[in-house]
Design goal:
The chain is an alpha/beta fold. 28% of the residues lie in helices and 14% in strands. Helix 2 crosses helix 3 and helix 8 packs parallel to helix 11.
Length: 578
């Protein structure tokens, strides 16, 4: 593990002016203060489909002063890894257990017929695991969440049933950020549903998702707690997930910012990442895949594409201000100094072509009845429905290979930081960290031990490692160099031991695929090749053979069910899922 002390003055010089002004006055102490008698509050924040370099503290040009300040005062991770998509990551985040055992072996929306009914493929957070909220509540914490759940649709699988005293949740994986999908026409296609506690509730008229979730959480935080009772607050935003939407005032702020195109943005961000010490100075980015060069786009295509990125940036900007509101309230209530803050994205940036709802089996006439308007001037409004495409996504994941949906680094390496109470901050940690490490870390910080059972039945033990020693300043690696860590989603596979990583790209068809595999495993040395550019399979056959065999053992141990051999990904009947 390489720990790099961060001089805030030097780092902030690379950020936006507002970030500099707000961060410079808030330099952290060189070491955390002595342990406090009371247990820490915990604030866990998730940004949905956030790019690796979107935040200023990670090399981005988007105005994110609140998150930058927290990141620079805390520990920024460059080797933080998740699943390739959202609900599998969230299952591991909540449980500390591999997603194939926790109920999200694949996304519920993408279940194939041969996966339905298989253990670990329930499509919701199952009872083989206890959520971190359940364990913290059992241990005396006041628990609350507001935001995207994506771990079960029914009341018995809702946040209120999985450990949260107070909750307001978007149940599915996405929703219209202005609530424009709350009508009969959208009900035939892709209507988002919300639940407060156990009760299904409407999306409030005139609201914006980021503000709605933030306001709900602030209300929960303001409620009385028993004397000295710590809280666990979970804030999983649905931004900047598609469909891309933001208030006009935020979009206007980024007008013209991206007119030079995605190749220029990728180069600019990579240069800042290197200057900030986040990637090696000699790192070679992976070339963009399946992207038409900006210079070859027509003026209309450029205007359309730039507008999409402007809206995306506006969403990230707005999310940052929302986090600032939470921090301000915690400061005003006197809780901030005793709050541990964990921030992560749930996967790499979304690179698919998105110009309307993509739910399988939907009647085209029903989609036409939605009257979606994706004209350039309307993109970002509640009546539009777009993503920003592969070019911007790959720019946001540079120097990594590919994007969300893949087991390459671009799909599973995300921006993340830990800040606040008890954190020896002002550092960059480059060693491997996994999303399953979060639950054991939070339980340990709460002074609690992992139980063998919960709710009267056995639960699976944590697979992640506690980051508590690292947070306190220990330089020892959290994951041993010889530990094997593996992934699988939509038949995409990967396994890692130390800096060696084997990757298998699925050859079949999937809505997430930009690049298809050839049925062969590739081998990379991430220490020398973070962009996964040079396949070493031919030079190191013994290493690859050992890793592939280990992945096979992992698949058997975790009950991995691969999609049909023909590559079909036809979703199962959604009515079969709870």
């Amino acid at each position: 593990m390489r720990l790099i002390p961060t001089a805030l003055a030097a780092a902030t010089a690379l950020l936006s002016p507002s970030a500099i002004a707000q961060t410079a006055a808030a330099a952290p102490p060189a070491h955390p203060s002595t342990a406090q008698a009371k247990r820490p509050n915990i604030l866990l924040i998730v940004a949905d489909d956030l790019g690796w370099s979107d935040l200023g503290a990670f090399g981005g040009e988007i105005d994110t002063p609140n998150l930058d300040r927290l990141a620079l005062q805390g520990i920024r991770f460059t080797g933080w890894h998740t699943a390739p998509t959202c609900s599998p990551t969230r299952a591991m985040l909540m449980s500390g257990v591999d997603n194939h055992e926790a109920g999200l072996g694949t996304m519920a929306e993408m279940l194939t017929p041969n996966e339905v009914g298989q253990p670990g493929y329930e499509g919701y957070l199952n009872d083989r695991v206890a959520s971190i909220a359940e364990l913290l509540r059992q241990g005396g914490y006041r628990t609350m969440m507001a935001g995207k759940w994506h771990l079960g649709l029914t009341p018995e699988r809702s946040p209120a049933a999985r450990g949260f005293d107070r909750s307001f949740a978007l149940l599915q994986g996405l929703g219209n950020h202005f609530g424009a999908d709350q009508n009969a026409a959208w009900g035939k296609v892709e209507r988002a549903t919300y639940r407060e506690g156990l009760k299904e509730v409407p999306f409030p008229a005139g609201a914006y998702s980021t503000d709605l979730f933030t306001g709900k959480l602030l209300g929960f935080l303001a409620e009385p707690r028993a004397g000295g009772q710590p809280f666990f607050a979970y804030l999983p935003f649905s931004a900047p997930h598609w469909p891309l939407m933001a208030p006009d005032v935020d979009i206007a702020k980024y007008k013209g910012r991206y007119d030079e195109g995605y190749e220029v943005l990728a180069a600019q961000r990579l240069a800042r990442e290197k200057a900030l010490g986040l990637v090696p100075a000699d790192a070679t980015p992976h070339a963009m895949v399946g992207v038409k060069p900006w210079a070859q786009l027509t003026p209309q295509e450029r205007a359309d594409s730039a507008r999409r990125m402007e809206v995306y940036a506006a969403m990230v900007d707005h999310l940052d201000r929302a986090v600032g509101r939470v921090i301000d309230q915690l400061r005003a209530s006197g809780d901030l100094d005793n709050t541990l803050i964990v921030f992560t994205a749930d996967n790499g940036p979304e690179g698919g072509v998105i110009d309307g709802p993509r739910k399988a089996g939907v009647d085209p006439a029903a989609v036409a009845a939605l009257h979606i308007d994706n004209s350039v001037a309307n993109i970002g409004h509640g009546t539009s429905y777009v993503g920003y495409g592969s070019g911007w996504a790959q720019a946001n994941s540079a120097p990594s290979w590919l994007v969300k949906g893949y087991t390459t680094e671009g799909g599973i390496r995300t921006s993340a930081f830990i800040s606040g109470a008890g954190v020896a901050g002002g550092r960059i940690v480059n060693s491997f960290v996994h999303i399953t490490d979060v639950a054991p870390t939070l339980l340990a910080k709460a002074g609690l031990s992992e139980p063998a059972s919960f709710g009267g039945h056995p639960i699976l033990p944590y697979e992640g490692h506690s980051l508590v020693p690292l947070i306190a300043g220990d330089a020892a690696p959290v994951h041993p160099a010889d530990e094997l860590v593996a992934w699988e989603l939509f038949d995409g596979r990967a396994i890692r031991r130390g800096n060696w990583k084997a990757v298998y790209l699925a050859p079949g068809s999937s809505r997430y695929l930009i690049e298809r595999g050839n049925g062969q495993w590739k081998l990379f040395d991430l220490a020398r090749d973070p962009g996964e550019n040079t396949d070493l399979a031919a030079q190191q056959p013994a290493v690859l053979k050992e890793l592939v065999a280990a992945w096979g053992r992992y698949a058997v141990a975790k009950g991995v069910v691969l999609p049909p051999a023909d590559g079909a990904t036809k979703p199962a009947d959604r009515k079969q899922l709870p």
